[in-house]
Amino acid sequence: MQARHVVTAVLIAVFGNQAAAAAQRSLGQPSARPNVVLVMMDDLGYGDLGSYGAPDVRTPNIDRLARAGVRLTDAYANGHVCSPTRAALMSGRYPQRVGIEKALADAADSAVGLPVTGTSLPALLKSNGYATGLVGKWHLGWKREFSPQSHGFDEFFGFLSGAHDYYVGTVIEDTTRVQLSGYLTDEITSRALRFIEKHSTAPFFLEVAYNAVHWPFQPPDRPPTADERRAPRRRLVQLPDDSVVATRADYVKMLERADEGVGKILAALEQRSLTRNTLVIFTNDNGGEWLSRNAPFFHRKATLWEGGIRVPLILRWPGVLPAGQTSRQVALTMDLTASILAATGTKAPDSYRPDGVNILPALRGESPVLERNVFWRIDQPVRRQRAVRSGRWKLLLDGGQLFLFDLDTDPGERRDLAAQRPDKVAALRKLYLAWTNDVSSPATAR
Question: What pTM did the predictor assign?
Answer without folding.
Answer: 0.92
